[in-house]
Design goal:
With 280 residues, this protein is of the alpha/beta class. The chain contains 10 helices and 10 strands. Strand 8 and strand 9 form a beta hairpin. Helix 6 crosses helix 7, helix 8 crosses helix 9 and helix 8 packs across helix 10.
Length: 280
């Protein structure tokens, strides 16, 4: 007879306003055997507010490997475990990815209790195209490394979302201006909190951006001057779809729709690529 396995619950928590938590999340946090949190001091305030008495332990980047082994053993013993981050949804710019991969590899059950995440709220408040979008998270702090990353994103036609610390906002915007030249963007800050605000600017007027504090999300419009990525990336995109099992024409149709390009332009680019391959 197979032993009863516990389940891991990835529980989304409020990103500011303590009222932004689901009834299911509260019930789950009360019913599991243990809760692992990124910062127990921060999470304890939430648990106290909702009178949740479940034992709380730390799970952060410095003890992640040890905790993964412990959590796996606890699940195999039949314990139910919840993982939460300081605020928002676990794994989104927080530890947890390695844990989930391990559970999948060991066929241990894991589920998500949905809730708040700053990137979606910022996207809605920015006024930028809500889809498709690309979420990057935090850019490197070093300007040269930041510039290198932005150069790979400059041609992307999708809405771009980044997290940023307030003390780096001015230098980060200068790097954006250097690489992106001209682009509209929004600074969405302190989401769900008393001083929540959405500020809208263009890179040509970043001298008008005031010093801002709090939790910040940057939302940039996609590149509107180009209808596609670089041609080399376009070919790779088609090939990846073919490798996934699509026919050449199905792959071309999907890529043209995703990139908002004319199907014939994508078709001709791929035919030219094949022609070049044959001539080499």
């Amino acid at each position: 007879m197979e032993a009863i396995k516990g389940k891991l619950y990835l529980v989304s928590t409020p990103i500011g306003n303590l009222g932004d938590i689901t009834l299911r999340a509260i019930e789950t946090l009360k019913s599991v055997d243990k809760i692992y949190a990124e910062d127990t001091r921060t999470s304890q305030k939430l648990l106290n507010y909702y009178e949740i008495k479940t034992p709380l332990l730390s799970h952060h980047k410095y003890n992640e490997n040890q905790r993964i082994n412990l959590i796996v053993e606890e699940l195999k013993q039949g314990l139910n475990i919840a993982v939460i981050s300081d605020a928002g949804t676990p794994l989104i710019n927080d530890p947890g990815e390695s844990l989930v991969k391990r559970l999948i590899a060991e066929n241990l059950p894991v589920t998500h209790i949905p809730g708040a995440t700053a990137l979606i709220s910022a996207l809605l408040l920015s006024g930028k195209e809500p889809q498709p979008f690309l979420f990057y998270g935090f850019l490197p702090s070093k300007p040269s490394e930041k510039e290198k990353i932005l150069k790979t994103l400059v041609d992307v036609p999708y809405t771009l979302i980044f997290y940023e610390a307030p003390h780096r906002i001015q230098t980060t915007l200068q790097t954006f201006k250097k690489v992106f030249k001209q682009r509209d963007f929004s600074i969405v800050r302190e989401i769900t909190k008393i001083y929540e605000s959405s500020l809208h600017y263009s890179l040509s007027k970043i001298d008008e951006v005031p010093d801002v504090k709090g939790e910040i999300v940057l939302v940039f419009e996609g590149n509107k001057t180009k209808s596609s990525f670089k041609n080399e990336d376009l070919i790779d995109h088609i090939k990846l779809n073919i490798e996934d099992g699509l026919s050449e024409m199905e792959a071309i149709k999907r890529v043209s729709k995703t990139r908002k390009m004319k199907k014939n332009d994508v078709y001709m680019a791929f035919q030219k690529h094949k022609q070049n391959q044959r001539s080499e």
